Queue: 4 jobs
Job 1
Amino acid sequence: MRPITKENPFKLVFVCLGNICRSPTAEGIFIHKVKNHNLENFFYIDSAGTAAYHVGESANSKSQTTANKRGIHLPSKARKFEYVDLEEFDLILAMDSENYRNILDLDSKDKYGHKVKMMREYDPQPDMKDVPDPYYGGMDGFENVFNVLERSSEQLLVELKEHVKE
């Protein structure tokens, strides 16, 4: 892992299907954690979806309600994950196995697979491989997803902070 500096910030993108539930929640949580550690100049944080269903939309209202209750703002507007993202980002975090495969399918020359990880690889309490999609469920699903992403984001930041060079 390369040193993370203000001159060369670490770029990470969280990826789900539509970019309105899981990935913008992960993005908002990670932004919040980075700011709380005064590290915002060391990271570029984004989110995207492998499908273009919701391009330009804000995060799902249930995701926003769940995050707002915990003092987290979800600033993103949905966008589609593109090939250029494979080149641009240092770490690409898929929310589930299907989106992991969708991301790797863009990498026809196998140049960027080392950058693609599953978000739950950072979860200290992984009970499954995927971050479940809460889109068709009730608020409990959104609360569960928030908890999973908060734990995973905390561990991710712990690991990345080791490489920050102030």
Note: The chain has a mean pLDDT of 96.
Job 2
Amino acid sequence: MSRLTNLPEPGQLVYVRQRQFVVTDVLSGALPPDPLRSRPAIDQHLVSLNCVADDGFGEDLQVIWEVEPGARVIDRKSDLPAPTGFDTPRRLEAFLDAVRWGAAAAADPRAIQSPFRSGITIEDYQLDPVVRAVQMPRANLLIADDVGLGKTIETGLVVLELILRHRARTVLVVCPSALQIQWRDQMREKFGLDFVIVDSKLFSELRRKRGLQVNPWTHYPRLITSIDFLKRDRPLRLLRDVLPAPGEPAFPRRFDILVVDEAHNIAPSGRGSIQVDSQRTAAIRTLSPHFEHKLFLSATPHNGFLDSFTALLELLDNQRFARTVEPAQEDVLLKRVTYG
């Protein structure tokens, strides 16, 4: 089959870069023929695609079809098989179950998909954060399980569930620098989510390949960075460039999910009026209002000072908590039930 006959048409389903896409537009190249070539040049076409895969639903992509490796049209024009009879009730029931479990309904909080789409063995208590997250309009959770109980797994379940329900697409994980590779590997191996580590090396590589105006914070949908890199002047300045300027509306929010590992490191130190924000605290305070969902992880969220703990809760959700104001009793009981 020639390249021309294999050219997709708008509305067709195609397989590109290990994902399925729907073709939205096909544009033919307008370059004149090269007089130095003895053979006629092959026409090239710019194909606009829209992703229909679970982990990238709605993402747009443009490719040159003739040079895109592995691109193929999924043939959907073949005739349906002739019916030969009725399925048994048991087979029909299995089919209906497969359809029901294969469709993540944003309006149904009971149909949790992420445990079935992850490669892990899950304990019962690890399902509690994801169940609560899908019931909240904004998933602002402080996961304060003890060391070794799987806070990373609980976070991955919440992130994957929100992505499957199309409530989130962009994710930023802020963690200590020693844990960046661990976060990237676990998200890829256990949940099938690819993350890119943002550091000085990535900054230099993108500037060399994509130009001086490229902004790494908007170049990839899922990012991992360290809190000590984020607080530097240049990364924070580039991040402010994509945030609303003072006086501009903050809604809709620019990003979807913010994950802060070892969140006790961003809590301000001191007490009362002498409480001072560190550079880490100031960096997260700049980011926090521009994320729809926030997940803070810490095995030691309370350092014994109420002022510091309430300031951490204020960073998590400033609509429910305020600095120096003791949390309501129902919130304390909810946290004990959830994470205690």
Note: The domain at 106-339 is CATH 3.40.50.10810 (Rossmann fold).
Job 3
Amino acid sequence: MSASARAARWWFAPAPAERLAALRIAIGVYALVYVVGRFGELQAIARLPAAQFRPVGVVRVVGAPLGPELATAIAAATAVLLVLFVIGYRYRSVAPLCAAALLWTLSYRNSWGMVFHTENLLVLHVIGLACAPAADAWALARRRAGPPAAGYGWAIKLLVALTAATYVLAGIAKLRIAGLGWIDGELLRNQIAIDNLRKALLGDHIAPLAEPFLDHPSAFTAFCALTLALELGAFAALLGGRTARLWALGAWGFHVGVVLLMNIWFPYALLGLAFLPVLRAERPGAWLIGRWRARRARAGNSRPGGPVP
């Protein structure tokens, strides 16, 4: 078998439709909660002075801010589309619209101040799911035909690749800023000290482990080396199995460390959703469905006249 044939066989390896559906539901629910939870903020920024508007990403196609009513309507439509995305209603037409609306809404929000890079992977995952047959199971209107010729495994690998790419780019950025000298830990130690000092001066909570770690500079060398190894080696997640799960655990632990040292939160990663594609995401849903069906069967058998057909 040629190398290209082996690569195609690996990329298109089969996976259950329920796994992709579980990713659609979990990621879609998070995106919905994220947008709804910030709806008041989205309304508020739409009324800021036009002088504060600095378009980023796709928002650069407009030369001036949208009217407050239009910006609010787009945000509301995004939330509605996310509901349809989660339940899988008319997915082939709704999902691309949902991905485009989410991209616009979050980019528009970032055009009025600080750019929140924590949202990037969420949007990329929604776009990836919108391009995939993610509503062939656990959806309001499932496809009646059999699975697509390409299967479902490629879409899950695409989500893993998107996750890995964001970490690899973060590692490359560190090397571009400081080179291999970043590993000695001094740059990170200074950054943590300045960030926590700023928090203390502004009355915010400093990170719980910042002061103890700042007293031990050698610990930052190990932390920096491990961080670079995790980020630059992120594509190991595509190998699947135990290797992918170990990498995901290490990357999740890195985000916990960021909270403990800098009190900076990456909720999409900390909740595990960034790494969910490397896991058998369908298992909790399958377990709940199995319990529900078993309970229905027991209830039917207990009725007079025997089981319900």
Note: The chain has two domains: 14-151, 164-287.
Job 4
Amino acid sequence: MSYARQMLDTYSRTFNVDAGVLAAAIDALSDCVEACNADNAADLGEPNVTEMVTCIRLCLDCADICAATAGVTSRQTDYDAAVTRPLLEACVAICKSCGDECERHAHMPHCRVCAEVCRRCEQACQELLDATK
């Protein structure tokens, strides 16, 4: 069981979404932050770093957006859909863009892993969005 799910299970209020879907999104967001930061560092170590500029920028953007979204979705007091929904939508968009770019460099293992994590995060955020409709 993930730490996100363990924390959600300790919460005394009821959720307006399935706790499993919420925990999966929080976990995917956290994993995406880690993967994008690691991929960014690896990209900077590549011999032809100028070819990696777009990947580096998208990984930075993805890590920042996913970190903010993980923080907001982890707080389950006074849920505000007007704030959470746009963040999740931004995550879906940036994870798609970052995943697409990382797939272009999938011959590098760090980019392949990052693309996979971005795809999983994109899907988890979309599932949470769908669950909140």
Note: Residues 3-131 form a domain with the Substrate Binding Domain Of Dnak; Chain:A; Domain 2 fold (CATH 1.20.1270.360).
